[in-house]
Specification:
The complex is a heterodimer of chains A (284) and B (251). Chain A has a domain at 68-233: MetI-like (MetI-like fold). Chain A is built from 10 helices and 2 strands; from the N terminus they run ααββαααααααα. Chain A has helices spanning 9-42, 48-52, 65-96, 101-115, 118-132, 139-163, 167-175, 180-208, 235-244, 249-282; strands at 55-56, 61-62. In chain A, strands 1-2 form a two-stranded antiparallel ribbon. In chain A, a hairpin with a 4-residue loop joins strand 1 (55-56) and strand 2 (61-62). The longest helix of chain A is centred in the N-terminal third of the chain and has 34 residues, at 9-42. Chain A is globular, with a radius of gyration of 23 Å. Chain B is α/β, with parallel strands linked by helices and 251 residues long. Chain B has a domain at 3-97 and 169-246: Rossmann fold (3-Layer(aba) Sandwich). Chain B is 37% helix and 27% strand. Chain B is built from 10 helices and 10 strands. Chain B has helices at residues 43-50, 80-86, 101-111, 117-130, 134-137, 150-163, 180-193, 206-212, 230-235, 240-246, and strands at residues 3-14, 17-28, 32-36, 60-68, 71-72, 87-90, 168-172, 198-202, 215-220, 223-229. In chain B, helix 4 crosses helix 6 and helix 6 (150-163) runs parallel beside helix 7 (180-193). In chain B, 47% of the residues are buried. Classes of the chains: A mainly alpha (284), B alpha/beta (251).
Chain lengths: 284, 251
């Protein structure tokens, strides 16, 4: 470390400010380089027919329409399963339970769940959903694994957002004769919606970008999945297969670019909606 | 019966600490009663005992009795929701919900099962008029209550409370976070409301107590030192400690 003692305080102040500035800039730079590189390599392949047509010859040529649908489909299932579960658990932790051992156990469970490697989830999904429950390789199996993966993120962020709701709102509602549930449903949850949505988006981003966890569960179909029991091939999985089996590196980059843009669009649209909701709620 | 609330031998504890000691007081119907005393003397805890808001605190224990219209409000068979409908509360910091002005006032009505739009509209208008806020907000009822000024927010909270037609309104330093003009408006409002409601107001401001209330109780270290007509307490207090407090010798 710098020997700050031999320098004047003014000097060390300047240097440290520079170090922190550089750290911040470097973080953004890494992000920009990765996204820029993916878009630079991928965008030349991306056009209307790439997005809206079926792959030909395992993806060597043709488009990725079934993969986009697959991604949206499994992610949708993951979110509609994980959101009520995660928010429900968060309401229990923040509104009903005190600091009991059960609560500590639930929190520890959520943290551990978040740190399990995704390939282990994949193996579990194969054993439990595909084989034991007999769901087979399908959208539902993949969606359920992704739900479990998104669950801890949604739970943790939702719990923090609920706890951030001022207790004066709760008191105001209870003092007027509302029950605890009426208070949670009418006042606490609506006030926490922006934060909870952020959690759902983080969970969604994790689910939509996952390849390893669904590797053994969704199958690898090249056609558009219709039923939840149809096999599918979400974008990350397609990308993985294209790259590792040497089918087409150009199309792999194209797929990556579409995936990045998809996540970007979902995030930006949701953030705009959340901001509009907050503004209306807070009267700004 | 003259009295709306009768408190007998009330003791309140949080864990082992005794917050209120042997409280005895009778609150007259449709009058304003001020509770004065230095910080930490138990005034807030006392008003929160009257609508059972202390129930929210795990360590809360009490004995003695609190009667509302002759009925023990700590009777295990009593419905707390019904009690809080009858005994409304306005807090120190204005706490409107992050909802529209209309929805804030309609909140209590909806919670108690009133859904009919025309009834809601009528009651919201009545309540806002009663809280002297109607003229300022009638054109923006669908706007968020969070955009109102602090004084308007507090009057909105009063409108929200009177919308469910309570018998008693507890006010815990309702003007302490407001500017002098807003404070005057709240005091004028209290004058108007006392014809229809029994009001108990916690205040640190002794001029305020003399301006708004007919009765005053002086709290010190969890006990009521003296209570009675406001004029008497402020002009010829019986207890030396009351005199010391109102003349500013401590507190």
């Amino acid at each position: 470390m710098l020997n700050l003692k031999i320098m004047s305080p003014k000097m060390s102040q300047k240097i440290m400010k520079g170090v922190f500035w550089a750290s911040g800039i470097l973080t953004v730079l890494i992000l920009l380089v990765i996204i820029g590189y993916i878009l630079y390599k991928g965008l030349p392949v991306v056009n209307m027919s790439f997005i809206f047509s079926n792959p030909i010859d395992s993806g060597k040529s043709g488009g990725i329409f079934p993969m986009i649908i697959s991604s949206l489909y499994v992610t949708f299932i993951a979110i509609i399963v994980a959101t009520p579960l995660g928010v429900g658990a968060a309401v229990y932790l923040s509104e009903y339970a005190g600091e009991t051992n059960l609560v500590k156990l639930i929190r520890f469970g959520a943290e551990t769940l978040a740190s399990i490697p995704s390939i282990v989830y994949g193996l579990f999904g194969l054993a439990f959903f595909v084989v034991y429950l007999g769901l087979g390789w399908c959208v539902l199996s993949g969606g359920l694994i992704l739900a479990i993966m998104a669950l801890p993120t949604i739970l943790q962020v939702a719990e923090v957002s609920l706890e951030a709701v001022p207790s004066s709102y709760r008191e105001g509602s209870l003092a007027i004769g509302a029950t605890k549930w009426q208070t949670i449903y009418n006042v606490v949850l609506p006030a926490a919606v922006p934060g909870i949505t952020t959690g759902v988006i983080l969970g969604l981003a994790r689910a939509i970008s996952e390849a390893a966890a669904i590797l053994f569960a969704v199958g690898a179909a090249l056609s558009v999945p219709i039923s939840i029991f149809d096999p599918a091939r979400p974008l990350p999985l397609h990308l993985y297969i294209l790259a590792t089996e040497g089918i087409s590196l150009d199309n792999a980059y194209g797929t990556a670019a579409v995936l990045v843009l998809l996540v970007l669009v979902i995030t930006v649209v949701t953030n705009t909606l959340v901001e509009r909701y907050s503004k209306k709620m807070m009267g700004r | 019966m003259d009295y709306r609330i009768e408190v007998e031998d009330l003791n309140v504890y949080f864990d082992e600490a005794q917050i209120l000691k042997d409280i005895n007081i009778k609150i007259h119907k449709n009058t304003v009663t001020s509770l004065i005393g230095p910080s930490g003397c138990g005034k807030s805890t006392f008003v929160r005992t009257l609508n059972r808001m202390n129930d929210l605190i795990d360590t809360f224990k009490m004995d003695g009795s609190v009667l509302l219209d002759g009925q023990d409000i700590y009777d295990p068979k009593l419905d707390v929701v019904e009690l809080r409908k009858k005994v409304g509360m306005v807090f120190q910091k204005p706490n409107p919900f992050p909802k529209s002005i209309f929805d804030n006032v309609a909140y209590g009505l909806r919670v108690h099962g009133i859904e009919d739009k025309s009834v809601l509209t009528e009651r919201v208008e009545e309540s806002l008029k009663a809280a002297a806020l109607w003229d300022e907000v009638k054109d923006k009822l669908d706007k968020s209550a969070m955009g109102l000024s602090g004084g308007q927010q507090q009057r909105l909270c009063i409108a929200r409370t009177i919308a469910v037609n309570p018998e008693v309104i507890l006010m815990d330093e309702p003007a302490s976070a407001l500017d002098p003009i807003s404070t005057t408006k709240i005091e004028d409002l209290i004058h108007k409301l006392k014809n229809d409601y029994t009001i108990i107001i916690v205040t640190h401001n002794m001029q305020q107590a003399t301006r708004v209330s007919k009765y005053t109780a002086f709290f010190l270290h969890g006990e009521i030192v003296e209570s009675g007509l406001t004029d008497k307490i402020f002009i010829e207090p019986e207890d030396k400690r009351t005199e010391d407090y109102i003349t500013g010798r401590f507190g």
